[in-house]
Design a protein that fits this description.
The chain has 402 residues and is of the alpha/beta class. It contains 19 helices and 8 strands. It has helices at residues 4-16, 40-47, 59-64, 67-76, 98-111, 122-135, 179-182, 187-198, 200-214, 220-235, 237-241, 245-265, 274-288, 296-314, 324-334, 338-346, 351-360, 374-383, 394-398; strands at residues 30-34, 52-57, 80-85, 115-120, 139-143, 155-160, 163-168, 174-178. The strands form 2 sheets. A 6-stranded parallel beta sheet has the order 1-8-5-4-2-3, sandwiched between helices. A two-stranded antiparallel ribbon has the order 6-7. It is globular.
Length: 402
């Protein structure tokens, strides 16, 4: 699957075979996943009638994508092209906070842009998609690393006064994923993308729990689509860790498919459960204490193993004597659904296997490797479910909340 028609047609055909109509889903106009895909971006903007493009990135991502060459190609087609280099915070990180959003909004206004192009990875996409949404503009995605599955998202996770919240935004009108560029991404970012995909093990489990116990809406096709993308990544973990062309294409395709699955459902249940809540909790703590940020997918991968282990302990599938009382209390809350839920959990890889896969892909496997200490991990297990209290994860049930 290298072209838009392959990826989107695959998704649509799968839905149609199950009698699902996707006429109201706003898929991107184009998704190009191929070597040299960046060359298609200027032509696409010209065909869409855009006259003034704002490229949103930072010095590293602009260099990775040959931003000067991209701007020159746009100008060659009569499109005014200017760039916004989002400034880092005091710790030296580019983050999707108020300052980054306002900087981008002001540049959109000052330059009179009629389209915003995200040149970078997850954070720069979140900044761009929200600034474009607030300005009433479309945005186009040009990822420089296969590090997250949020390229197609219609929501933007933002840091507002230090709290991580997800707000409505806009999905990309097109995605140009150039595998020549993606293959040069740092190994840590590739491993982060793999970690983001591994997190689907616990997010899909939590979604079934939320549906069964909490009455949340559930879409079997979206779950199947996400699981397929996850298993394709796991089957190619060595190629992804080796950053082979096939591995990079497999990972990027899986991230895009996971994103399209969320687009179909309209929410992030398939791809974001308790492992993401832990990740967000850790991120906010690092910001609060003025420490450097850790890649989103790296946190998610490590958190997935933590959650898988925590769930097994609390359901009595792993030994921890001091947890016996809480396991009994949880069993009472789950009632006659306990065997079913325990069975679902038993189908997932255990923490040791998840950590092994993270290492194969070249990423950190333990929170301590990310600078996340035992105290913070323990506190996040007690409190992180409050980040999204409407999401009915097993972690929320463990903590005695409904």
């Amino acid at each position: 699957m290298n072209e838009h028609t392959d990826i989107v047609a695959f998704v649509k055909q799968g839905a149609e075979s199950r009698g699902i109509r996707l006429t109201e889903v706003a898929f991107p106009d184009e998704i190009v996943l191929a070597p040299g895909a960046a060359a298609r971006l200027p032509v696409y903007l010209k065909e869409k009638g855009h006259r003034r493009a704002l490229l949103v990135g930072d010095p590293i991502t602009m260099a990775a994508a040959n931003g000067d060459g991209l701007a020159e190609a746009l100008r060659g087609l009569g499109i005014v092209a200017e760039a916004t280099l989002v400034k880092p915070n005091a710790a030296g990180d580019v983050v999707a906070d108020e300052a980054s959003i306002v900087q981008t909004l002001l540049d959109i206004q000052k330059r009179g842009a009629d389209v915003a192009v995200a040149v970078g990875a997850g954070t720069l996409h979140d900044i761009t998609r929200y600034a474009a949404y607030a300005s009433g503009l479309p945005f186009v995605s040009m990822p420089t690393a296969p590090s997250v599955d949020g390229f197609t998202s219609k929501g933007a996770p933002l840091l507002i006064r230090g709290d991580k919240i997800t707000v409505p935004a806009i999905g990309p009108s097109a995605i140009f994923a150039d595998t020549d560029i993606l293959a040069l991404a740092p190994g840590a970012m590739v491993a982060a993308g793999f970690g983001d995909m591994l997190g689907k093990y616990t997010s899909l489990f939590d979604w079934k729990v939320g549906h069964t116990i909490g009455g949340e809406d559930y879409d079997p096709y979206v779950a199947e689509l996400t699981a397929m993308a996850l298993e394709e990544c796991v089957a190619n973990a060595e190629a992804i860790g080796g950053r082979t062309p096939a591995g990079i294409e497999t990972l990027t395709r899986a991230l895009i498919v996971s994103g399209l699955a969320m687009l179909i459902f309209g929410q992030s249940h398939s791809a974001s459960g308790a492992e993401h809540h832990l990740s967000h909790y850790w991120e906010m703590e690092l910001l609060r204490t003025g420490r450097r940020q850790v890649l989103h997918g790296a946190k998610v991968g490590a958190a997935c193993a933590v959650i898988a282990e925590h769930y097994r302990i609390r359901l009595g599938q792993a030994a921890e004597p001091q947890a016996s009382g809480s396991a009994a209390a949880l069993a009472l809350r789950l009632g006659d659904r306990l065997p079913e839920i325990a069975g679902w959990l038993g189908e997932l890889p255990d923490a040791a296997r998840i950590r092994e896969l993270l290492r194969i892909a070249g990423g950190p496997a333990l929170p301590e490797a990310l600078g996340i200490g035992d105290e913070l991990v323990a506190r996040s297990l007690r409190e992180a479910d409050e980040i999204r209290p409407s999401r009915k994860t097993l972690l929320r049930l463990i903590n005695g909340r409904t």
